[in-house]
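User: I'm curious whether this sequence folds into something compact or stays loose and floppy. Could you predict its structure so I can see for myself?
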Amino acid sequence: MTDTTVVLVHGAFAESSSWTGVIAALESQGVAAIATPNPLRSVTTDAENVRRAVESIGGRVLLVGHSYGGAVITEAAVGSEVVTGLVYVAAFAPEHGETSLGLTGQFPGSTLGDTVRPYPLGDGTHDLIVDRALFPNQFAGDVPVTEAKIAAATQRPIRDFALGEPQPAEISAWKTLPSWFVFGTGDKNIPVEGLRFMAERAGSLKTVEIDGASHSVMVSNPQAVADVIVEALAHLS
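Assistant: Here's the prediction. I'll summarize afterward.
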């Protein structure tokens, strides 16, 4: 269908398998897609990790980020000669100097803070996880409970520094690249008003809101997310 490879970047409290349904939907339409690991240590180093993955492909790339992964792709795309567009899936799209934590608190509605559990790393920072018993309701309310419990057990912790690190690049990539947004109106992690604000600010070419979908919208609605990605690819071809 296209010579562009889709590179999917997971966010906090998730891992690459969260993209399984989206990858299957894309591949059924002839779209090449990979999910690259996101260490969740800092925006700067995580973006460097994604840049290396992008450069290894050897062709055009559409970057797709979920949640904190949105901040990562925003940074990773800066200055790239091969990244052609950005898709934000229930994701942060920060401006220079903004943080994921700050954007979450800028609008009312997030209940994530009450469910997060820290543990020290020994360097003054902490790793954070979502309480595994609370994860299904907080993170994946529209995902079958058995599947949500597995996601809770396999979640990757994020270093608190990453959520509080100011976006490094002076010019965010969404200012120079076309972007698309898709998210659920039942998101309990990032307030829906915040997601709408970021989409409008970025000049999103298309914003898709899925009624009642949770923060794990790519798990509960993989075809709808894949459809946005395919539309982005068609626009870029």
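Summary: Residues 5-236 form a domain with the Rossmann fold fold (CATH 3.40.50.1820). The mean pLDDT is 97.
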